[in-house]
Design brief:
This protein has one helix at 76-85; strands spanning 4-8, 15-22, 25-32, 44-57, 62-68, 88-93, 99-101. It is mainly beta.
């Protein structure tokens, strides 16, 4: 069974989930939707969670995503270049919504 993530459409920290295609696979991305500038970031903060297996919306403001970790067949170098071309900066969010860019 795939991990399942329940998520408000936008959290109070300003994070949201987006699905974007890469190599014909739907990537599950967590992004920072806040408009304020962040020092040191070259693009919009994003964390890649994995490949979407299923998306289920509910009547309230929550979505459920089932996803798998990125398969070893995905080139992380190509994925990083793809995200960079689209104006994203890869990294990770902590439980408080703080973003740490990935090491170069």
């Amino acid at each position: 069974m795939s991990p399942r993530l329940m998520f408000d459409k936008v959290t109070r920290e300003g994070l949201s989930l987006v699905v974007e295609e890469f190599d014909n696979q739907p990537l599950l991305l967590m992004l920072d939707g806040r408009k304020r500038a962040r020092s040191g970031l070259t693009g919009r903060a994003v964390q890649v969670l994995g490949i979407v297996v299923a998306e289920v919306s509910t009547p309230d403001h929550a979505w459920y995503y089932e996803y798998e970790l990125l398969p070893p067949t995905i080139s992380l170098r190509r994925l990083a270049a793809y995200m960079d071309q689209r104006g994203y900066q890869l990294g990770v969010f902590d439980q408080y919504g703080n973003f740490q860019p990935k090491a170069a």
